[in-house]
Structure formats: structure tokens, C-alpha cells
Amino acid sequence: MLDHVIRGGSIVDGTGATPATGDVGVRDGRIVSMGGRIDEPAREEVDADGCIVTPGWVDVHTHYDGQVTWDDALEPSATNGVTTVVMGNCGVGFAPVRPTDTEAIIDLMEGVEDIPGTALHAGMPWGEWETFGEYLDLLDGRSYALDVGAQLAHGALRFYVMGERGAANEDATAEDLAQMQALVTGALEAGALGITTSRTIGHRSSSGRPVPGTFAAPDELLALAEGMRAAGTGVFEAIVAGTIGRLEGLGGERSTPIEEVPLLTAVSRTSGRPVTFTVAQLFEDPDHWRRVLDATAEANADGADLHPQVIPRSVTIMTNLDTYHLFRGRPTYEKVADLPLAERVVEMRRSEVREAILAERPETGAPDLSDNLTALFAVALPLTFPLTEPLDYEPTLDQSLAAQAGARGVSPEELMYDWLLADEGKAFYAVLGSNFVSGSLEVCREMLADPHTVTGLSDAGAHVNLISDCSASTFHLTHWARDRTRGERLPLEHLVAKLSGGNARLYGLGDRGVLAPGKRADVNVIDMDRLEISAPYLRHDLPTGASRILQPARGYEATMVAGTLTRRKDADTGARPGRLVRGARTA
Predict the structure, then answer these.
(1) Whole-number Cα distances in Å, 116 to 84, 419, 426, 493, 537
(2) Beta partners for 9?
(3) What is the pLDDT of residues 343-352, one digit of tens each?
(4) So where are the chain's domains?
(5) Are the C-beta atoms of residues 110 and 205 closer than 8 Å to each other?
């Protein structure tokens, strides 16, 4: 007898093949039969009539490294069809770490990924691990709503080996390189899915210092690559210099993404392993991404294995009265900033308070994340848009805050003030920057269509009060397969393959990512007519009561992880079949 039959759906199998209607039979966590009508009896049937049936999504760019030690639900990934996450990206993570270095590692993660340090202090069981293998052992004893894979972070590794010299980004010695190389091999042999690094000066600790490894010499990255070669497994992930622009305010990046491609090529050839790195459209050089993809194709034709990692929309930098916004730091606002939200809205609606705040400018000390964002929000009003349902991530420019302000005969700052008070202060707005330079997402369509790219960059688990791009997995289907009106769409089967089979293949997870007999039963049943991304909202459920943005989706009729239904009709079943994924997997 089968455990489940998923009955009568349109099967989009994750390979890119044309969808076909049929059943999927599941037993003991695996797909055992597929296609046509399955007559073998089952303990439970899932009606997929009128729905598509896909593999579960494999999200290769998350930052749940802290959250996995206190949370088993792993929202918002679980609410957007994700069944496997890969964390430890961007060169930041929590292992290896000496007991005396906890503060430094938290400082690094808080600054780079905007995860409250208080939550990391209170929520993580510090002292229960030191080595990367011990960190994996800790996770191996836990269960989740989906599977979790971890990568070794260059920042943590460098600090562990070099201490303050590593944090200060001094050059590594030959002895340092040998030790790092050995630790890379050991971590991969223990089950790490890869190693990650950050080379952009935009990634800084909360104390303001660039991530350890930001200025690493080529011989250091090649030493890490040699460690990968010795293990014979793993992916090298990088955020390269220039990924988010020139950053003149921080001193300027030392190179551009196109100039980093030769080094990434050398890492791929030395390691014999795949390399994935972030690519996005830049305001100062809107066609730079195209040159990077062309250079990637040339390198791959010559034996490299490079995979630019792209996002299907603009990175949505969010603003809300309870998170980051334009008026933080202004003296009159700061007088009411600590009031409960409802009371703050009442105060801010008073005409004298409104006039005072609008007339002031921030009073700040040394620039921090909030100061930098306040400055960003001030110049980004022409690219600031509402995030109200139905959500539109490819709006026309006349819908922007600045355009709306002009039409109403008020200043953009006045309208932003009023917008922030909408929905009793709960409304969210987004700055659409990267990939939206021309007011269109056409560059995203071209990036997604490229055969060398992989899709990622959800950043789930990070930037918890600033970005909510985990819904980008659902956006692939709602926007690119169904709703887009301002240009061409993309085939559903291509998008499903990007979300599942392509990402699983990159990380050597051969047991999942496609629907076929013998594969893990990681499955989504999706009602495409009902599929929608919900408006973002705040929930105060991190350790110490800290807040985070959540953005679930509607239309996932069922999600199955290893043959167990974890979600039914957009609701958590409470089942926790997810486990740690150690290393590459075969079917």
C-alpha cells in the first residue's frame, strides 16, 4: 500500500520537460510511481485536480544559521513552498568559533545580515560547539518543517584561525593558509555543502569593520579551493566586490564584478567544484550584468563551472513605521519613537507633531545601519512603491511615491509621512533598486532565461526588519509564469526547473529537485489560480521578543517533505520531517 497518492495534477517535474497530467505515488518518503492513473491503494489521497504538482523548492541562499537553533518552523521559507534551504552564505556563519569569540561572531552577523544581536545572544545555545563538525552535530539532533544544509563561512573561519589579524583583514601567512585549507577539507568531509566568502565592503560588522576575508589575496581563496579539491565536494559561493555598486561613501570597492570573474574562474578550476556568485543590475552601470554573464559563458566553455546567482525581481528594501523609515533620528520623532505603535500613530497625526518632524533633519552620531537607511530612503522616493495587495513588484514609475506626491501637489516627504501612518502604521513600502533601473524587470527575465544562472538570493532568515525576499520563490510563478503584463513571460516548466532541479543539481543533492521514481518525495501541490503573495507584516516572535517581517503565500494546497505533509491548504500541519543535509546526495 502507498502512503499517499497525489491525484490528477499537472506534473511539472523540475527537469524542464513539458507538463503532463497524472498521479504521483509515495511510499516511505520516496516517489515510487508517477504518471497516468495509479490504482494501488493509499492511506491518504491528495486531490490535485486543477493544480500543478512540482518538486519542493531548493533555496540556496538563506541565513538561518542562528534561527535553526531555536526554531523548527523556518518561516517564511516553509510558507513559500521551500523544502530544502542552504544557509551560511555571504561569508558569515557561527562555526568554527571559540567560546571567547562569541561576541565577535554575533557582531559580524548582526551587522551584515541585520539579525538582532540580542536574539542571537538569547536564542542560540552558545558553548555547545566549537568546530564546524560540532555545529553540524548540534543541528543533526533536531527536526524541522524542511531540510537544512549548512556552508562554512570564510569570515568565521578566518577569525578562528587568525584572530584579530583576521578581523582586521591582514594578509594571511603560509601557516594561516595551511590551517584554513585543512579546516575547509574537514568541514566538507563533516557534511558542509560548501564554503562562502564576501568581497564587498558593503558587508560590515555592527561595529563597522568589513567582513574578515573582504580583502583576501587570491592565494588565500585558492588555498580554500585546494581544501575543496581535497574533499572532492562542495560549492564555492561568493558576494564579489561591486555586487551592490561602487559604494564611494565607504571608500569605494576595489574592483567590479566583471573584474572578479577571472579569480572565480581560477577558484573553480583549482577546486574542480562549482562556483556561484551574486549578479544584479547596477544603477551606475546598467549593462554590467550582461558583460558578467557573457564572461561566465566564455569561462564555462573553457572548462570552468560558474553559476551567476540571480533574483527574479528587484531586491525589496522595505520601510514601515515600526522598522526603518525616513524620519528616524529626527528629534521630535525620537520623543515618540518608543511609544506603542497605536499611540505613536495618534501622536504623529497631531498637526503640530507632523509639522515639527517634517521641518527637522536627523541628529546622529557615527553612521550606523539606521542612519544609512534614512539617507537611502531620502534619495529613493522616486523608486518607493506601496506593498498593498494585490502586490505589484513591476509597477509603472507613475505609481511611485514621488510621482504620486507631484500629482497631489505635496512634497514627497509629506506623502511618505502620511503613507507611513496608513493602516494604523502597519503598511509597508518598498524601495525597488537593483534590477529595476529602467522601471522594468526585463533584465530579470533575461537573467532567468540564461542557461548558466541559478535562482536564489531570498536571504531568508536575514535582514529581518528590512527585506522579505523569501516570497521570491512564489513570485517566479505568480509574475513570470502568469501575471506579467509589461513584457514577455517565461515558461512554467523553465521556472520550476530553476527553483528545484537546477539548484539541487548545483549542490549535488541528487536525491531531490525533480519528480521521478526513486527520488525523495519533496512535493508542492499548487493552485495556480489562487496563488498569491500576501502583504508583509511584522511578528514579534524572535528571542527577547524582537520583530521580523513575514510574508507568506496563499495557494499552496499541499507541501510534502520526505513523504510527510508539512502544510495543507496554506496551514502548518505541525509535522517536522526535515533534517540536516550532510554533503552531496544521490538518488
Answers:
(1) 24, 26, 20, 39, 18
(2) 22
(3) 999 999 999 9
(4) 1-55+486-531+552-574, 58-314+441-467, 318-432
(5) yes
Cβ(417)–Cβ(359) under 8 Å? no
Report the predicted TM-score, pTM, of the whole model to 2 decimal places.
Answer: 0.97
pLDDT tens, position by position, 549-571: 999 999 999 999 999 999 999 99
DSSP lists the bridge partners of residue 309 as 278, 454
Question: Is the pLDDT at 120 greater than 80, yes or no?
Answer: yes
Please answer whether residues 96 and 162 qualify as being in contact, where contact means their C-beta atoms are separated by less than 8 angstroms: no
CATH architecture of 58-314+441-467: Alpha-Beta Barrel (3.20)
Q: If you average pLDDT over residues 477-497, what whole number do you get?
A: 98
Q: Looking at this protein, which amino acid is placed at residue 396?
A: T
- 1-55+486-531+552-574 and 58-314+441-467 share one CATH topology? no
Considering the domain delimited by 1-55+486-531+552-574, tell me its CATH architecture: Roll (2.30)
Question: Which residue has 553559476 as its cell numbers?
Answer: 307
Q: If you ran DSSP here, which 8-state letter would residue 509 be given?
A: B
For the segment 328-340, what is each residue's pLDDT rounded down to a tens digit?
Answer: 999 999 999 999 9
Query: How far apart, in Å, are the Cα atoms of 31 and each of 2, 163, 563, 587?
Result: 10, 48, 8, 11
What angle in degrees, to the nearest 10, is found between the helix axes of 442-449 and 492-499?
A: 70
pLDDT of residue 246: 74
CA distance 265 to 227: 16
